[in-house]
Write a structure and sequence with these properties.
The structure is a single chain. This protein is α+β, with helices and mostly antiparallel strands. Helices cover about 25% and strands about 35% of the residues. The model has no long low-confidence stretch (mean pLDDT about 95). The strands form 4 sheets. Strands 2, 6, 11, 12 and 13 form a 5-stranded mixed β-sheet that branches.
Length: about 240
């Protein structure tokens, strides 16, 4: 088991071969008591948290445009302990971003709701991979992107034109797999659709949309991994 991926550089990805291993993740099986103690603290601080199922990697590598990995289903409580520690050998978190590009070339991000783990943070709609995001044991990255965008914004991006390939940007805090999705309207109209969806949702995950029109737009709460992705998009890179 190992993590072998270049950090802090955007890399093109032609193939994502991340597989779900039915075996338990060593971090979860070896830290049961610490997970429970930390979860009690997390729930005390934020009673809205839910202990669902996500996945955590035990292997991840990149070579010649191929992203290869092995992951395991874990409790969200396990993820929260890892999130506090992070510098854990052979353990990595990955998530996917649909980079939403409006017709007038703005980017449509979101600000997370106050009751969420990333309260106030700004990034593209995203969430951890879950077991439902795997097809015959292999991660379906676009399914995850489409699901998360629909859940958080109400937008259906399943039929939209997509970037030709994925890209990946990895830091010690996690690995983002991303791809452009080209929306069918200008940014202001898309933002209005999202605000309408949030207003009608009884338990919205987000506070609302955040429109980014240039690489110099740096809204408060913008997550650090977003900076290079903004530069990449507005440079016109493919």
């Amino acid at each position: 088991m190992s993590i072998d991926i270049p950090r802090n550089v955007i890399l093109p990805v032609e193939v994502v071969d991340v597989r779900l291993d039915p075996a338990p993740h060593p971090f979860e099986s070896g830290n049961g008591e610490a997970i429970e103690r930390n979860w009690l603290d997390e729930k005390t601080a934020n009673p809205a948290l839910f202990d669902g199922t996500v996945v955590l990697l035990s292997e991840l590598s990149y070579a010649q445009g191929r992203l290869k990995g092995r992951c395991h289903a874990i409790r969200f409580a396990t993820f929260m302990l890892w999130r506090r520690q992070q510098a854990v050998p052979n353990t990595e978190h990955a998530y996917a971003h649909a980079v939403l590009v409006s017709r007038d070339n703005a980017l449509v991000a979101i600000r997370m709701g106050r009751h969420t783990v990333n309260a106030g943070s700004v990034y593209f709609a995203a969430g951890s991979f879950e077991p439902c995001d795997f097809r015959e044991g292999v991660a379906d990255v676009d399914f995850n992107m489409i699901r998360e965008v629909r859940e958080e914004t109400g937008l259906d991006i399943s039929g939209l034109r997509r970037g030709r390939r994925y890209h990946v940007f990895s830091t010690p805090a996690g690995t983002a797999i991303f791809r452009r999705y080209h929306l069918d309207a200008d940014a202001d109209e898309i933002a209005a659709r999202i605000r309408e969806f949030v207003a009608g949702d009884t338990d919205p995950e987000i506070d609302g949309p955040v429109i980014i029109r240039s690489p110099n737009d740096r809204p408060q709460g913008l997550k650090p991994h977003m900076f290079p992705i903004l530069d990449w998009h507005f440079s016109g890179a493919e």
